[in-house]
Every structure is written in C-alpha cells, then in structure tokens.
Amino acid sequence: MKEMRTGIERAKSTSGGAVRKAAITVLRGVDSGQTVDAALLPVSLTGTDRATLQWLVLGTLREFLSVQALSAKLLRKPWREEDADLGFLLSLALFELRHGQRPAFAVVNDWVEMTEAVKKPWARGLMNAVLRRYLREREVLDTALVDRDLGHPAWLAARLRAAYPQDWPAIAAANNSAPPLWLRVNTQRVDPGAYRRLLAEQGREAEGVTWSAAALCLPASVPVATLPGWDAGWVAVQDGAAQLAAHILAPREGERILDACAAPGGKTAHLWALGATRLDALDRSAERLNRVRETLERQGGEVHLQAADAAETATWWNGETYDAILLDAPCTGTGVIRRHPDIRLRRQPEDVAEAVAQQARLLEGLWPCLRPGGRLLYATCSVLPEENEEQIAAFVQRHSDARRMAHPLTGQRLPGQEDMDGFYYALLEKDACA
C-alpha cells in the first residue's frame, strides 16, 4: 500500500508566497506550544495550496531534528532568539530541497525572497549562500547525518528502544512516514459496498479490512470535501486503529453506555452508528465538546453531551450505573506521531508520569459507575508500556472485582502495523457478584 501513496506527497511544490508565509507562521505556532492542528486551523488556504502547506509543515516536523542538524552544519552560529523565523524558513527550505520536485534554483530563489516577508531583508544574502552551499555539498552533508535516534528525541528513542528492541526501527520508520487516509462509512446512511464503488468511480481505490465492512483505507490523503457524501455525513475520517474501539466494546441494544473522554467525537459517533442509542458523552473541555457536537451533527448522532471531568463523578453522575464505558484516556500520543509529528517536539519525559497518574485517576473514578457484569474498554493512542499494559495490570491488581476479557482486537498495536496508528486496548469486566 505504501508505495502507492500520492495525495499530500504529490503536492511537492510551493505554489506561492502565501503558502510559504503560512508555513513559517505554523512552525512559529508549534514552537510557541500550539499543536500543529491548532496552528493550521486559522489558515484560510484551501485545495492544492492547503495540501502543499500541510506537506511542507508536516514533512518538516517529521524531519525536524535532522533538518536542525543540517542547519547547524551550514551556519557558523545559531540564530538569535529574535531571528527564530529565519530558522523556520531555513528548515522549510531544506526540507523542500531534499524532497520537493521543483527545480532547485526555483526553491532557493523563492525561499530567499521570504526573508522580506519575515522582515529580515538583511538575511537575504546569508540565506542564499547557505542554501546554495547545501546544494553543492548535499551528498556529503546528507551522508554525514548519522541519526542513532532515527528522528526522535533521545529520551523517547531510548524508551521505545527499551520497550521494543526488535520493533524499534519499524516504529521509527512508521513515525517518520506520511500516513494513509482511513475512512469510516456511516452505515446509518449508506451501504459500505456502495460507497466503495462511489470512490472507485472517482478513481480512488480503497482497501478494506476483515473486521469491519465500514473501514476503508485510501493510500494517501485527499481533500475531504471531495469525498462522496462528505457534507451529508456519509463518511468520517478515522484511523483504522481508532475504529477498533466501538467494535471491541460492541454496544448491545438498550445498553446504557458512557464515552468518558469523548472529544473530538469520532468514537462517540461510531458507537452511535453501531446502535448505542442510550449514549452519554463527557469531556472536561467545553470547547472540545463543541467538536463532538459538530461531529455528531454532521453524522446524525443523538447523544447526551456534558462538559465534566469524568473522574469527578460527584459533578455529573446521577448514580445510575452504566452497562459499558469507553475510557479513551488522555495519553502521551506516542502512537500517533506520524499524524501529529509535533508530538516528538512538544512531549517531554515528565509528561509520561503525568499521563499515567491521570489515567489511573480516571480508571478509579469511573469503576464505581460500571454495573456488576458490565464492561469497561480502556484505550490510549500511546505505545509506552507504563500507560498501557503496566497501567492495566496495576489496576486489576488493586481491584479484585476486575478481570480482563479476551478479545482478538485488544492489546498493543504498534504504529504502521496493518498501516494503522499505534493504539492500546484492554477490555475489563466487573464481577457480576460485586
């Protein structure tokens, strides 16, 4: 599948100063602490321009540490703090020179022109000299980039290498690659087979999976507005690994179900599509809960939404127990780096312990909300054992009324396996005699 990818990667040319300027602005936002999604959100570019912007930004972030190492070799001294935009400019230019399809002279000229846009005209000659030096010496410079940590921060590479000594190179390769586009067909509105035929009529061949007729995978990203029935809610974008959640929890008719950390709403909508008609959804952020509402409105789901901290049950729970609970717990996101490459730059070692504590707090708070005989699905998009297997083992040890339920789709899924994101699932059942 991977060799067929086009999509964003097909847009390997910058189509104007607006795209380049926006790319610098987005990297500035990420550097200030924004997620790349949040930094991209206000950008008004559409169509090919937006695809090019995303290719530039996401690609540069995937290779950021390597590009930084290149910059250090090309510059006699680091940029001053007030000249950070020049650093972003150089990183983007180096990425395009390494991976773009335009003539090198055009790439250099266009990025040199951007020194005016960032109000650093004095750097024009310097930027031109640095980029042309790279072109002259690129073979030697690229060959010298020996990266033991494969584009990951040293602390994260060490943890992944220790946890997965055999799989570490494959994990790194997946994290450093552009993902495919996974779709979930809304079976309440259209037949999956019919939808697949509509894609084929557009010249888009989708691959299916054995565990769900509604899960389809396109080899590369496309503008979602061009998908058949997008505005009518016929289809949603959702990675295959994320789609597993609703199938594992498998809502039954009449069950009372809670989605405890619902934003952005993809799993909530999927549970509803599979027949969860008595569904409550919580998120501690009222702003993020609006995204859940928007997702449900587009796909037609009717769910009771409430802004609340799921662990603080006194603020939202009426005492009526649930038949099933989905806890898609806050985590480090180390399984979705290929989709959110800024994670490798924003995440810090101390974030792991903080995530583990928050996950344990949610598990403890929600367990009393589950009826005896009910089931709780614990999920993260992390690959770190502390957040996953170790977290669940410790919880089961603390609770004699908790037992694991066997399911073929649970356990740790690593990035790139079956071309999916990295996810962890554990299905727990509360003792019926509790």
Automatic annotation (TrEMBL):
This is 16S rRNA (cytosine(967)-C(5))-methyltransferase. The keyword RNA-binding applies. PROSITE patterns: SAM_MT_RSMB_NOP. It catalyses: cytidine(967) in 16S rRNA + S-adenosyl-L-methionine = 5-methylcytidine(967) in 16S rRNA + S-adenosyl-L-homocysteine + H(+). GO terms for cellular component: cytosol. CDD domains: AdoMet_MTases (cd02440). The keyword Transferase applies. GO terms for biological process: regulation of DNA-templated transcription; rRNA base methylation.
